[in-house]
Amino acid sequence: MLGAGRTVTRVWPDRQSVREFIDRPRDDLVGEKRSGDGTYRQLNGPFTQYQRTVTSDGEQLTERTTYRLNIPWFGWLFAFPVRMLIGRHGFDPVHRHPHKTPWWAPPDQISPRHALVLGLLAAASMSSAFTNTLFTQTSQFASEDFGIGDVGYGVAQSIVRAGVVIALPFVILADRIGRKRVIRVVAWAAPIVTATGALAPNFPTLVATQAVGRPLGLALDILIAVMVAEEMPRNSRAYAVSVMAMASGLGAGIAVMALPLADLGENGWRLVYVVTLIWLVVAVDISRRLPETVRYQRPHKIAPQLDRRRLAILGAVAVFANFFVAPASAFQNRYLREVRGFDAGMISLFTLTTATPAALGLILGGRIADFRGRRRLIAIAIPVATSLVLVSYLFGGVSMWLSAFGGGFIGGIAYPALAVYRAELFPTGNRGRAAGLLTASALLGGIGGLLLVGQLLNRGQSYGQVIGLVAIGQIVVVLIVLTRFPETAHRELEELNPEDSAIPPASG
Questions:
Q1: Are 478 and 382 in contact (CB under 8 A)?
Q2: How far apart are CA 7 and CA 20, in angstroms?
């Protein structure tokens, strides 16, 4: 978090072209207005405090900007780029126009409230991703410890995913009593329940704990997506989804970084579950500072009838997408361990090296989806990403590492465009319920893919063959998106959902 105000001073030569440049009110990350005393103050922007002054001593102009930015948890990440932007580094007053949103910022000029909510929800996304990733990362080591084979491994993965039924009551409740109250509950419950896996005396008990803990984290993830859609301006929803996905990647990455604990001894995997308790710190912060969404606070109809056509179309995409994504993700560690001979440390290195940098594709994809639209991006990126992931299961060595990176990077570009639809196409009164049902559909598709892959591997089929088979689901996804999905970029949620048309649109 950036607490105390920061000051950036820039000295310019006192020339007419330069004076015209810096005398214009800014319109990039911040929109300015000029006061009667010549001071520039924030009209629109994320700063809780902001002031810019320009003075002259006859030979040079001095531009001094004082600002304060409050981004919980991730303020350190934006400190340097914000300072560089405020100091106009890279801007040429003669040949370059200053009024441009930087690539790392949302397309809209967001408010301090938006910055606060994004920071808190990004931290919550880390917690959710850790609890959702933990069993996938540790189950190979736990199954070896308890003597579980391929079929039992696949069944266990399916049972944990089937626990989504536990998440549904929470997201439905959020439509009735508010997002903030339910998020607070699951932010506490998910890490506590998940951590009990460290005490499991056998594999069925471990599966049972994660079949409860993981859905609680999933409920948190669903409600984060709903809250982001309801809070963000219309041109920045996909960007916000990409930020949440990057934070999720970091949370999952922490789970991966903890994985070498599994090599410390026969029961070393239990220590990874203990690490889950660090996310209680996030729960404390969310309980203290997270506000209710503006849209939920406005008058709206509770639990209106769901648009079944939209639900069916989005549900089909969720099923077919995860028919491939779930097994490609869940069996990666098993493939690396059995086929490539990786130990826990090498698996951790592979995942961090190929997946973490690929998260940069999320920011790129979020901006493209907000500026250029969702449908075309999905149609191009998904086939490329799927092909690269398949290559990583067919070849070893450098090809495996590069294709895994490429698949993750291109998949990251596609993700915000596809994920944002789940919250955009349903009204406030049942946005949580619809998102929960779509998540359940995705998990059903994943379960089908996991069971099929587990059975085929047990019969001696190669990883490349079975991953190639389930990749067919991605072709179906692209066809449905191109023929059935509406374009939602640049449109208010109320325009997309006539049930909420009487509600004034969010500012921005």
A1: yes
A2: 22
**Exposed / middle / buried, residue 460 (Cβ in 10 Å: 0-12, 13-18, 19+):** exposed
Q: Is the pLDDT of residue 173 over 70?
A: yes
Highest average pLDDT, of 70-74, 135-139, 498-502, comes from 70-74
pLDDT digits (tens, 9 = 90+) for 406-415: 999 999 999 9
Stated length of the chain: 508
- What amino acid occupies position 286? I
Q: Rounded to the nearest 5°, which phi and psi values hold at 164?
A: -55, -25
Tokens of 465: 């063959």
Phi/psi at 66 (5° precision): -115, 130
Q: What integer is the mean pLDDT of 331-343?
A: 89
**Roughly what angle, to the nearest 10 degrees, separates helices 179-195 and 164-177?**
150
Query: Which two structure tokens, joined as six digits, stand for 295?
Result: 């849209």
Phi, psi of 439 (to 5 degrees): -65, -40
pTM across the whole model: 0.86
Confirm if 192 and 113 have CB atoms less than 8 A apart: no
pLDDT tens-digit profile of 366-385? 999 999 999 999 999 999 99
Helices (H), 30-90: 75-86
**Tokens matching residue 450:** 């996991």
Query: CA–CA separation, 248 vs 265, rounded Å?
Result: 29
**Do residues 245 and 413 make contact, with C-beta atoms less than 8 angstroms apart?**
no
pLDDT at 204: 92
Q: Which residues are registered as beta bridge partners of 50? A: 67
Q: Which position has the token pair 């997408």?
A: 321
Show the tokens assigned to 60. 């040079």
At residue 2, the pLDDT reads 39
Region for residue 88 given its phi and psi (left: phi exceeds 0; alpha: psi -120 to 50; beta: otherwise): left
pLDDT above 90 covers a percentage of the chain that reads 66
> In the chain, what are the domains?
6-70 (no CATH), 112-500 (1.20.1250.20)
The tally of CA atoms less than 13 A away on the side-chain side of residue 280 is: 10
Q: How far apart are CA 474 and CA 443, in angstroms?
A: 15
CB 238 within 8 A of CB 381: no
Q: Which two tokens stand for residue 406?
A: 């490429």
Segments in 290-359 forming alpha helices (H): 294-297, 308-330, 332-338, 344-355
3-state secondary structure 429-454: HHHHHHHHHHHHHHHHHHHHHHHHHH
Residue pair 353/345 in contact by the 8 Å Cβ criterion:
no
